[in-house]
Amino acid sequence: MANRLTQIATRTGDNGTTGLGDNTRVSKNSLRVHAMGEVDELNSHIGVLLCEDMPQGVRTLLVEVQHQLFNLGGELSIPGYELLKHEAVLALDEALAEHNAHLPRLQEFILPAGSRAASLAHVCRTVARRAERAVVALGNEEALKDTPRQYLNRLSDLMFVLARVLNRHRTDGTVGDDVYWKSERMAKGAAE
């Protein structure tokens, strides 16, 4: 693995290039750098979400996700290198099953709304989808392992489920709910 940064303002990127972990330089507009940036942004949004009140189990899960996203960013920064293991995808599958089991079935589409924590989880979900698209675009041009794409796909699903969990989390003893889309179909069903 390449050397770790010892200083931040190197000025080597002033010409529009950046160094990868294997010491090669690429355009800051390359697909690889876009994918790395999307994963970094996602990790930053999860950091903001972690500032909110939430169940300890969700907090522990999200901290682990941050570590795995850092692994993913490292993997993207070194072409051909593997840091994100398939076990990380399996851990997301387990978390999805665990948290989904306690939620009521959806009756309609939900809005990305509700509590602040749930809304931030929805932002994380959409950024995860964007990061996934960036990784797919990179994979269309360069050889990538399947795990990064699978991890981001699963993480987006998990963030949707966690938004629902966080909409129900209240410290005052009340129980919250999802914010349902007011569709014509639901309006007709309620009128009948």
Automatic annotation (TrEMBL):
Its EC number is 2.5.1.-. Residues 1-23 are annotated as: Disordered. GO terms for biological process: cobalamin biosynthetic process. It is an enzyme of class 2 (transferase). InterPro entries: CblAdoTrfase-like, CblAdoTrfase-like_sf, PduO-typ. Keywords: ATP-binding, Cobalamin biosynthesis, Nucleotide-binding, Transferase. It catalyses: 2 cob(II)alamin + AH2 + 2 ATP = 2 adenosylcob(III)alamin + 2 triphosphate + A + 2 H(+). Residues 10-23 have a biased composition (Low complexity). Coiled coil: none annotated. Pfam families: Cob_adeno_trans. Residues 8-165 form the Cobalamin adenosyltransferase-like domain. GO terms for molecular function: ATP binding; corrinoid adenosyltransferase activity. It comes from the Bacteria. Belongs to the Cob(I)alamin adenosyltransferase family. PANTHER family: CORRINOID ADENOSYLTRANSFERASE (PTHR12213), CORRINOID ADENOSYLTRANSFERASE MMAB (PTHR12213:SF0). Homotrimer. NCBIfam families: PduO_Nterm. This is Cobalamin adenosyltransferase.
